[in-house]
Amino acid sequence: MSDASTNSDEQPGTDWVFGYGSLIYKVDFPYRRREVASISGWKRRFWQGSHDHRGTPQAPGRVVTLIPSPGTLCRGMAYEVDHAVYEHLDHREKNGYQRHRVDIDLVEAGGTVKGTLYVAGTDNPAFLGPAGAAEMADQILASHGPSGSNREYLLELDKALREIGETDLHVAELARILRNI
Ligand code: BEZ
Known about the structure:
This protein is α+β, with helices and mostly antiparallel strands. Helix content is 27%, strand content 38%. It has one domain (14-175): Gamma-glutamyl cyclotransferase-like (Hypothetical upf0131 protein ytfp), CATH 3.10.490.10. The strands form 2 sheets. The chain has a 5-stranded mixed β-barrel. 38% of the residues are buried.
């Protein structure tokens, strides 16, 4: 008999990770399998400050986190990985992000797997929260960090989302404003 914690699609010693931001297009970790996927009950927002990747402590950039949103589907990429990958990802996403367990629907392959995602909650010190779209686009345009420009992060994410068939109006609006600045 299976229950919510049983994952018949998972090899022993592996787990699934759901990427909704840079993990969709910046894949600097080994994986066994990759599938377009979606989760329910979360929306993607540029509400997390970045002082270690796309900004600096003096001038933080803006990157995505997930905000609870009942009924909303959020599409991204799921990776089947060995547990050792968490050492790398925990370090890469150390600025306020914490692991959560979720059900992940595999869009094209079909089926549901249990997996992990990283969420920067509203109580973490780097959380910026909402602002007007023009203000956020200005901040993104002005920010640069060790991983590159915040502009590149937004445009790469916008492109990657369109490539996997995701319509994310929040990301698309920021990208449109930024391209027109
Ligand atoms: C992601 O792409 O899933 C991700 C985004 C920000 C931090 C950690 C993970």
